[in-house]
Write a structure and sequence with these properties.
The protein is an alpha+beta fold. It is 48% helix and 19% strand. A hairpin with a 6-residue loop joins β3 and β4. It is extended.
Length: 472
């Protein structure tokens, strides 16, 4: 297995031509035969006992070629990447060039190469200074949030559904009078106004009475993931089985002592004020980092390959899928409830994918320009931090990551140090009166489930799975 040729293409793309020797491919074909023979029926032989040459004569010489090719491509590609010494930043697009008896197996892999970056101004970038003062309104909002988190859930039986109610419903959907697969639910929890169902569904339940069936008329979005339903009008027969709401506790000393270690409401308010101040400080820090990176990106020049963006888009969707699974929801369920398609979800995360790529590229370029390095002490401290998160010894983390993992960790530390450098060297000019928007974008509770990270976090996030794989 070896790299036969490397052709540089336009737009920071490259084509690797990889050759697998006749002998190595023959071994893979034999392994494919041994793996699949038990599933092949040959007259005159017991199942799984027919010789390879008999099977090939009956079904064709290339019957095992596809499985053999799929078996050898991953390892051959990885070795070719190592030989190329190129910094590959996308999944490969594989095409078979030669697959014939008695000849080497040859395939090509079209990949994106890390684009060069020409930096503009990156030191002394001017950004707005965010005010971190805690206002009375901030404190009231925090108190209200604490009230809501400690609210008592009560069941409502004497009125119809209102916006914000937590309901339990039965439903069944029909298109042209015929029930469709996946359109039925029993005892399904639904918060009105959450946007969990397709547009118009939840709004139509407002005013529904408990125990009374009603028809909800909606139209599936044109880009709905289930093509047979996309754009079609539907009728859902729904029954609201229960309504629940939150009853807020009274704000007094008793409330303070119940939810905290403080005896009085005034003491509790002071603790909340500090919490809000800390959050605003963190939000302002992230807002400053984002502003600095955005300014550097704006003056930098780079030609990002489309394949690199597509790879990052898939990585972001994978991250979101993991987040959904942690909440007990599959991506199929999420897309069914929201009406999103895979294509639309990829389109949604594209701006984030582009920004993550640009942020990391410019910070890597800054690190190179400023000769920023990562010491062994930096590395050990990072292992220690990671160990604290996963409750492991730093040495165990190092062992588990191995050499390839160490390379990735070093690169992540380098990017973080570059981010610290440009942020510390930035010039803050005028103050803003509020950091509420910045705080929201930095991760304050907004109730939004859409994949989202600040530019600074995107830049210092771990590389994509494809990036890591190609470096190992």
């Amino acid at each position: 297995m070896s790299l036969k040729n490397l052709e540089k293409l336009d737009g920071n793309m490259a084509k690797l031509t990889v050759e697998v020797s006749v002998e190595d491919f023959e071994k893979a074909v034999q392994e494919a035969y041994l793996k699949n023979r038990s599933r092949i029926n040959v007259p005159g032989f017991r199942k799984g006992k027919a010789p390879r040459n008999v099977i090939e004569k009956l079904y064709g010489k290339g019957i095992f070629y596809e499985d053999a090719a799929n078996a050898v491509i991953p390892d051959a590609y990885e070795k070719a990447v190592d030989e190329s010494k190129e910094d590959i930043v996308s999944s490969p697009k594989i095409d078979v060039e030669q697959l014939e008896d008695g000849k080497p197996f040859v395939f090509t892999a079209e990949v994106a190469l890390k684009p060069p970056v020409t930096l503009g101004t990156y030191k002394g970038v001017k950004v707005e200074k965010f005010d971190t003062e805690v206002t009375d309104e901030d404190l009231e909002n925090e108190l209200k949030r604490e009230q809501e988190q400690n609210a008592r859930e009560i069941e409502v039986t004497d009125r119809a559904v209102q916006d914000g109610d937590r309901t339990v419903i039965d439903f069944e959907g029909f298109v042209d009078g015929v029930a469709f697969d996946g359109g039925k639910g029993t005892d399904h929890p639904l918060t009105i106004g959450s946007g969990s169902f397709i547009p118009g569904f939840e709004e139509a339940l407002i005013g529904a009475e408990i125990g009374k069936e009603l028809d909800v008329n909606v139209t599936f979005p044109e880009d709905y993931h289930e093509k047979s339903l996309a754009g079609k009008p539907a009728v859902f027969k729904c029954t609201v089985k229960s309504i629940k709401v939150n009853e807020l506790p009274e704000l007094n000393d008793e409330f303070a002592s119940d939810v905290s270690e403080f005896d009085t409401l005034d003491e509790y308010k002071e603790s909340l004020k500090k919490r809000v101040a800390d959050r605003k400080e963190a939000a302002a820090k992230e807002a400053k980092e984002d502003a600095v990176i955005a300014a550097i990106i704006d003056e930098a020049k780079m030609d990002i390959p489309e394949a690199m963006i597509e790879t990052q888009q898939r990585q972001l969707v994978d991250e979101f899928a993991t987040q959904m699974r942690s909440q007990g929801l599959t991506m199929d369920q999420y897309m069914q409830y929201t009406g999103l398609s895979q294509t639309r979800l990829l389109d949604q995360v594209r701006p984030q994918a582009e920004n993550r790529i640009k942020s990391r590229l410019v910070l890597e370029a800054v690190a190179k320009a400023e000769n920023i390095t990562v010491s062994d002490e930096d590395l050990e401290n990072e292992y220690k931090t990671m160990g604290e998160v996963y409750q492991l010894e730093a040495s165990k983390v190092k062992e588990m990551l191995g050499e390839a993992g160490e390379k990735n960790v070093r690169e992540d530390i380098l990017v973080k140090k570059a981010l610290e450098f440009v942020t510390e060297n930035a010039k803050e000019e005028k103050a803003k009166k509020s950091t509420k928007k910045a705080a929201d974008e930095a991760g304050e509770e907004t109730g939004e489930e859409k994949p989202k990270k600040t530019a600074a976090k995107k830049a210092t996030a771990k590389k994509t799975k494809e990036d890591k794989k190609e470096e190992e």
